[in-house]
TrEMBL record:
Ligand binding (pyruvate): V207
Record: active site: Y137, K165
SMART domains cross-referenced by the UniProt entry: DHDPS
Domain of life the protein comes from: Bacteria
The keyword Lyase belongs to this UniProt entry's keyword annotation: yes
Signal peptide (from-to): none
Gene3D superfamilies in the cross-refs: Aldolase class I (3.20.20.70)
InterPro entries: Aldolase_TIM, DapA-like
Name listed for the protein in its UniProt record: Dihydrodipicolinate synthase
Organism expressing this protein natively: Flagellimonas lutaonensis
Family label: Belongs to the DapA family.
Gene Ontology molecular functions: 4-hydroxy-tetrahydrodipicolinate synthase activity
Protein keywords: Lyase
Amino acid sequence: MPQFEWKGVMPAVTTKFTKNDTLDLEMFSTNIKAQLDAGVSAIILGGTLGEASTLTAEEKKTLVEHTVDLVNGKVPVILNIAEQSTKDAVAAAENAQRFGASGLMMLPPMRYKATDYETVAYFRTVAQNTDLPIMIYNNPVDYKIEVTLEMFEELLKHENIQAVKESTRDLTNVTRIKNAFGDRLKILCGVDTIALESIVMGAEGWVAGLVCAFPQETVAIYKLALAGRIEEARQIFRWFLPLLELDINPQLVQNIKLAEVATGLGTEYVRPPRLPLQGEERERVLQIIEEGVRSRPELPDYKNI
């Protein structure tokens, strides 16, 4: 089984498109290189931010293979699994392994609101059919299914279920999980606006969104917090918060792609039915981004902490 550590900043990267709605691998590569230069720990493909629901199987294959080639063993490449049937989820996991991914992030069944028993059976079946390590994405706010401690008790019988992307938005859950499972279940914060607090409370990592546009600042916060330099981390986080709030919004993809344009790391093209922001909302988001770029903090030498 491929082994890597579930820790550090793991960007859930956006998928770059051309104006003709094809994959823009050139701009995608520019962004990935910036992530690697900043010191991220992994690359996560095909998440919500990656517009996974609109990607074809062939496009996912292209993205994984291109990213694996690009990172050249520096960091693991993780593919998100978000399927409607267990059979499709197993097939997606098998494909991910074949394409060269080193790990999986897994959502519960899509569209159908599965019971606790059904959700555990779904995750278990996929875990039994892949050697790849798995991070369960626990986001009851957006996906209406919560993976409880009792459910994790069952799931952790499978050695390759190793981490949780903790997106319940309940900060006390970090402590609850640590009290229940110690280091057996690694915690990665999945909500940008409480990432610093989650790291301070013991989360091993951060599956980040605004990192797509601001990779250095994101990794700096993580490294400073881990080193106990909380005041320095807090000052950067205070600057970052208005931008981070763009992640907890139904138009998070459009918001973050607009931020990527401002920092030279992306384009605004999204795949319909998503469309670029319009009118007053666009102006509001642009103001936040422009102020963030104008007042970017000077960072310490965080890579050598």
